[in-house]
Design brief:
Radius of gyration: 11 Å
Structural class: mainly alpha
Shape: globular
Strand order of the largest sheet: 1-2
Number of helices: 2
């Protein structure tokens, strides 16, 4: 699955942006990844943390 994220440091999450198996390659895959992250968030604080990590990962992938 493209953009499947694995949790390394979040106790509340099934997935996070801590590591990525396969980076999304287009906009719709990034959208799907963000939607999955938000759906897996346990609360608003978890959603914020997930969004922040996802944005950092997106930025790093753009800069690479």
């Amino acid at each position: 699955m493209v953009g499947t994220l694995k949790d390394v440091d979040s106790a509340n999450a099934d997935t996070s942006v801590a590591s990525v198996d396969v980076l999304p390659t287009n906009g719709s895959e990034w959208v799907d990844l963000f939607v999955r992250e938000m759906m897996n968030a346990s609360d608003v604080d978890d959603a914020r943390a997930r969004a922040s990590r996802a944005m950092e990962f997106l930025e790093k992938s753009i800069m690479a």
